[in-house]
């Protein structure tokens, strides 16, 4: 009886060495428990043996591959976030530039009350003073007295749109207004049907 138990211990020891070598390569196996759930097993060797050494190698390779996939997945997600940050930074820069331009234009000399929705023409005198006029260079013709710097449309939020962007901005506003004027795409209100919930 005692002689038959000795090989089991040797084989179990070899299995434990395989477990330890696999653990050092990155894989991990469940710890051996002689009495799982408080119940003694009939043959701990048969329930805890490591099995084929190639199984342990495959486990280590699987853990390594999982690490590589996790790293690649995290890298992809961080790349998307970095692109979003760059886009937000670009938007923030444009917002600040537009705000600076709008503030400068509101301080330009003007002898009329500016009204949203109208286009104003920016000129520069020989003295360097800039001023707004409601007369376009075409209306002045060859007798335009001062240098023309550009035309701007005053928006209802008191921001300014350069003349060359007016058509594009009006198209955007038109799309938004069309969406706002459409009825909600929801089914008409009906009384709640509770037939399946009540007896």
Automatic annotation (TrEMBL):
It comes from the Eukaryota. GO terms for molecular function: identical protein binding. Residues 1-29 are annotated as: Disordered. InterPro entries: DUF2452. This is Uncharacterized protein C1orf50 homolog. It comes from Erinaceus europaeus (Western European hedgehog).
